[in-house]
Amino acid sequence: SGTAPAVDYQAILDQIWLEVAPRLGEGKVASYIPQLATVPVAQFGMAVYRLDGQMFSIGAAQTRFSAQSVTKLFALALAYTRVGDSIWQRLGKEPSGTAFNSLVQLELERGIPRNPFINAGALVITDILASCFVGSEIALLQFIRQLCGSTAPDFDLKVAESELKTAHRNFAIAHLIKDFGNLHNTVSAVVRSYCRQCSITLSCEELARAAAFLANHGSMPACVPGGTQILDASSAKRISAVMLTCGTYDAAGEFAYRVGLPAKSGVGGGIVAVIPGEAAVAVWSPGLDASHNSALGTYALARLTDLTRHSIF
Ligand code: GLN
User: Fold this and answer.
1) How far apart are the CA of 145 and the centre of ligand 1, in A?
2) Are the C-beta atoms of residues 287 and 295 closer than 8 Å to each other?
3) Is 9-65+202-308's fold the same as 69-198's?
4) Is 86 annotated as contributing to ligand binding?
5) Which residue lies with its CA nearest to atom 4 of ligand 1?
6) Which tens digit of pLDDT belongs to each residue from 109-122?
7) Which GO terms describe its molecular function (predicted)?
8) Per-residue pLDDT band at 3 (split at 50, 70, 90)
9) Burial code of 3-30, b = ≥16 C-beta within 10 A, e = fewer?
10) pLDDT confidence of residue 247
């Protein structure tokens, strides 16, 4: 960016691939959603989409995976385009310090989730979208397709059904929020829509394209035909800030320390990160660490920011 020397992204990605390849299989796939437990762990892909339109990738960067909580980023952005800063009347923007599916603070804070990136907050965002759109998860899918310029991303209904059948904790969270009056649609409609949203599949290359507007002050990169302004610059900045502090659950501090970029992770093993003014990066490897972030994905992003010096710090 600016006066910094140009970075040879492909050479750096190739270096990362050399380091990661012998470690394929590290971490554990999420198994609390039965269908996700069937994904082979020894997979890895990574893509850097620079704002000038160049794509650099390694490994399985075109393989579609279950986006899971990565979709919370796009749900927040879509809600923001509709209701703006008034969403903060219904949820906070502080890191939780507890697991992504925790109920503890929800009781203490009277049904106001800590932030939009833990499950409680995402369920409130789903509720907001359900009040804005008929078929809100379809609106979200269309939004993601628009951002990545492809109709390939889609729901994986097997994963959605598998999650819905075992979604006891998300039902519990939604019921508690409902009891505090912070859910306007029915619990069953919201959890169902949320499970569909989480089941959306996309590849690293598609995900990197989809997040590029956040690296570009809220506008899709100028090189995208028909690319438009999604959010104003101030809103894009705010969403990126919430990614930095809350995007990787209770490991956001550790992640900022190691990677130093705003990012959002999911239990499918995907992570999307933003290099402001420069690029969006997506990485996927299904093996998770103890805080449910992709183990090799986090490693690869840490190496990327070390080798390129493009962290925000
Ligand atoms: N659908 C998952 C859940 O609600 C998403 C969690 C995640 O990716 N952290 O448990």
Assistant:
1) 21
2) yes
3) yes
4) no
5) 119
6) 899 999 999 999 99
7) glutaminase activity
8) low
9) eeeebebeebbeebbeebeeeeebbebb
10) 96
Our answer on whether the CB atom of 267 is closer than 6 Å to any ligand 1 atom is yes
**What pLDDT score was predicted for residue 107?**
86
Residue 170 in contact with ligand 1 by CB distance below 6 A: yes
Does the beta carbon of 194 lie inside 6 Å of ligand 1? no
> CA gyration radius for the chain?
18
CATH architecture observed for domain 9-65+202-308: 3-Layer(aba) Sandwich (3.40)
Query: In this structure, which amino acid lies at residue 6?
Result: A
Is the pLDDT at 71 greater than 50, yes or no?
A: yes
Nearest CA, atom 10, ligand 1:
101
Rounded Cα distance, 236 and 34, in Å = 35
CA 296 to chain centre: 16
Residues, the chain: 313
Q: Using pLDDT thresholds of 50, 70 and 90, give the confidence band for residue 1.
A: very low
Q: How far is the CA of 241 from the centre of ligand 1 (A)?
A: 21
Other CB atoms within 10 Å distance of the CB of residue 175: 14
Choices 2.20.25.420, 3.40.710.10, 3.40.640.10, 3.40.50.300: CATH for 69-198: 3.40.710.10
For the chain, give every domain's residue range: 9-65+202-308, 69-198
User: Does residue 104 or residue 309 have the better pLDDT?
Assistant: 309
